[in-house]
Amino acid sequence: MRPATDALIVIDVQNDFCPGGALAVPGGDEVVAPVNALMAEFRTVVFSQDWHPAGHSSFASSHPGKTPFETVEMPYGTQVLWPDHCVQGTAGAAFHPELLDGPAQMVVRKGFRPGIDSYSAFFENDHATPTGLHGYLQNRGISRVVLCGLALDFCVNYSAVDAAKLGYQAEVMLAASRGIDLEGSLDAALSGMQAAGVTLA
Ligand code: VGL
Ligand code: ZN
What we know:
- By secondary structure, the protein is of the alpha/beta class.
- The protein contains four helices and eight strands.
- It has a six-stranded parallel sheet.
- The radius of gyration is 16 Å and the shape is globular.
- The site of pyrazine-2-carboxylic acid has 9 residues, from helix 3.
């Protein structure tokens, strides 16, 4: 068992990020077994859940003439446009059916504001609007966060870098994560995390 000051943050293990889903991450479902095993080691387990309203501004379908994986300039910076995914209340937004949800004490939903995306479980993509996760972890006395899930180069990456910036010891479990790898985004994420002081395990 890990010390009580460690938390496991399981990022977006949802049907739409698994094979057959709207924004499938290659091998996304392969994280389920290692995540289930990892949860048994932690007294504090948090899930994040990508949770968009229909017509969300991160969807290519909301931008006439744009197709998925193109980018657009938003007031908060460059945004990749995605296929419609993780729409609130749909089967695609549900957690993978084999993910054990008993150990999770807290589910942080993100990406629910129509005009702004949220990759990080800590802050929206403006890097300023908090999700509340930091306050929760502080209240639980957490100093070290271990992250895993989907997608390694987007939501896991942004969450891990934010965790390190907030002063947590941050560690990413690569064997329990999978990436999308859009035009080199996986290598960029791995080096960016290392530069931010995140441990890759
Ligand atoms: C994610 C793209 C769009 C993720 C979420 O969970 O990594 N990626 N929404
Ligand atoms: Zn999303």
